[in-house]
């Protein structure tokens, strides 16, 4: 008989949830859609507005397909001072 202390709990994904379907959170996707619709409504920018959404979402998916935190890491890396050397 196994005691309650030794009983194994089933593993769930609460600590490590699955990444979003498109690699980006819903609010980023909604923001890109809103921006592309706003650009599409401007006179003379219909082709730019129509191409903005798939281009940005495709690039965002490509950027985050391996690591969802990649955009944040790139921004933090760019904000570091030029003389910063992580090897020291």
In short:
With 88 residues, the protein is mainly α. The protein has three helices and no strands. The chain is flat, with a radius of gyration of 21 Å.
In round numbers, the mean pLDDT is: 81
Instruction: Quote the beta fraction.
Output: under 5%
How many strands appear in the DSSP assignment? 0
What is the element string, with H for helices and E for strands?
HHH
- What oligomeric state is this? single chain
Q: What is the helix content?
A: 40-55%
Give the overall shape: flat
* Residue windows where pLDDT falls under 50 for at least 5 positions: none
How many distinct helices?
3
- Class from secondary-structure proportions: mainly alpha
Q: Between the first and last Cα atoms, what is the distance in angstroms?
A: 55 Å
Q: What is Rg?
A: 21 Å
Largest sheet: none
How is the secondary structure organized here?
Layout: H1 26-41, H2 46-64, H3 70-79
Name the descriptors.
mainly alpha; 3 helices; flat
Structure commentary:
By secondary structure, the protein is an all-alpha fold. Helices cover 51% and strands 0% of the residues. The chain is built from three helices and no strands. Helix 1 packs antiparallel against helix 2. The radius of gyration is 21 Å and the shape is flat.
